[in-house]
Write a structure and sequence with these properties.
This protein is an alpha/beta fold. The protein folds into two domains: 113 residues, Cobalt-precorrin-4 Transmethylase, domain 1, CATH 3.40.1010.10; 51 residues, no CATH class. The protein is built from seven helices and seven strands; from the N terminus they run βαββααβαβαβαβα. The protein has a five-stranded parallel β-sheet with strand order 3-2-4-1-5, with helices on both faces. A two-stranded parallel ribbon has the order 6-7. α6 links the parallel β6 and β7. The termini are far apart.
Length: 177
């Protein structure tokens, strides 16, 4: 039966992969990865046939186009009788644009979507910072690319801010400047 299953791979430590995510991956024969540049990929069950969408990053000039194309392909794959298992870094619902694009397109196509959550980057970041985000006058979460593109910080500088999607030294430098 056609379906899309989206699985969160967690923040990078294979021990943080949820039981539901692991069981879903272990039961699959093939998995499509948004990126194979994730530490958990090496720890996935050996029987899996893995496919990556990494080549899409070279085909397009911006992330919005990349994510739209990945979502389009995942929904096409999900229309197959066997459906598709699609895995993403972290949690599929935190900072993962493809999840929302896939859900919208699959809904329009009448294809059911199931999401298996993963640990997001937020929990390990808060632990590393010794920070309870609910007791710290409201930690702000922002996309590092938005901050880097802004001339004026798009957040309250008197409150803590956690920046997501800081994927390279170059972007970190842009955020700092």
């Amino acid at each position: 039966m056609p379906h899309v299953t989206i699985v969160g791979l967690g923040p990078g430590d294979p021990n943080l992969l949820t039981r539901a995510a692991w069981d879903t991956l272990a039961a699959a024969s093939e998995v499509f990865l948004r990126t194979d540049q994730h530490p958990v990929v090496a720890a996935l069950p050996a029987h899996l046939v893995l496919h990556s969408f990494d080549e899409e990053y070279a085909r397009f000039d911006d992330f919005a186009a990349v994510y739209a194309e990945i979502a389009r392909q995942v929904v096409v794959l999900g229309s197959r009788p066997e459906g598709v298992v699609y895995a993403v870094p972290g949690d599929p619902t935190v900072g993962e644009a493809t999840t929302w694009l896939i859900r919208a397109a699959a809904r329009e196509a009448g294809i059911p979507v199931r999401v298996f959550h993963g640990v997001s980057f937020i929990e390990p970041a808060c632990l590393a910072l010794d920070l309870d985000p609910l007791e710290t006058d409201g930690v702000q979460m922002l996309d590092a690319m938005v901050v880097a593109a802004s001339h004026v910080p798009p957040f309250d500088t008197s409150r803590p801010a956690l920046l997501a999607q800081c994927y390279s030294r170059a972007l970190a430098s842009d955020v700092k400047l």
